[in-house]
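Much of our argument rests on the idea that a fold can be written as discrete symbols. Part of our work consisted of pairing the sequence of a single chain with a tokenised description of its backbone. We regard such an encoding as a compact summary of how the chain folds. The amino acid sequence and the backbone structure tokens for this protein are reproduced below.
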Amino acid sequence: MATDIGKASQQDGVTERRRAREARGLGPAGASAAGDRLPKAPRERRPLLAVLAVLLIVGGAAIAGLLALRQDSRVPVLALSHDVAAGTAISDGDLVTMSVAAEGTHLVAADDKDQVVGRFARVSLVSGQLLDTTMLTDTAPLQPGSVAVGAALADGRMPASGLQPGDIVQLVQVGDGKGTVLVPDAAVSSVRTSDSVNTGGTVVTLIVDQAAGAQVAAVAADGSLAVTLVSRGAPTGAPIDTAAGTDG
């Protein structure tokens, strides 16, 4: 009998302790309630993506603005519509207009066409080439009484540094171990490298006095013409007194 009473008391104690735990939220019921009270997970935020999107928008706007400014900096300038030989007077039909970034250059603005037409090409010009003020001269390279003579110069018959339009040169007939000065101050009008197997060397156009033209042409034709440099880059269009240096 006493044993039954003790068991009952023990069960009552267990029941009371279970109820006490449930009241404190430690039992199954309390756990369920606590589970219901767990905070919801915060909404995931991606600040880096937002910053990247802003940077892309700002960067795109900056690039677009830079391109617009670059486009605005392009100005119309003059270019050649076809090849123009050195010494040729520039005509309106020789010119076209192109838009380029021309800041800090000697390119000729399209508005200055009237100042170009009628002037002479100092050097040979090619189709599509932008026109530079240094390519023009007010005076025709071929002055009255002057002629242009072509000559193919072999290696060793001209300075190793080469020739360029505007150079002043001395024309010498070589052979038999001696040299005869034909023209002391001829002007170089144009220079190009020959692609011909037979000719080879460098082909130049020389401006000489008309009285010396035939002799210079004959000497050039038989391959006995040599050229020595007198001065580099003198204006091709400047009048040259070559008569004093004519021999024969």
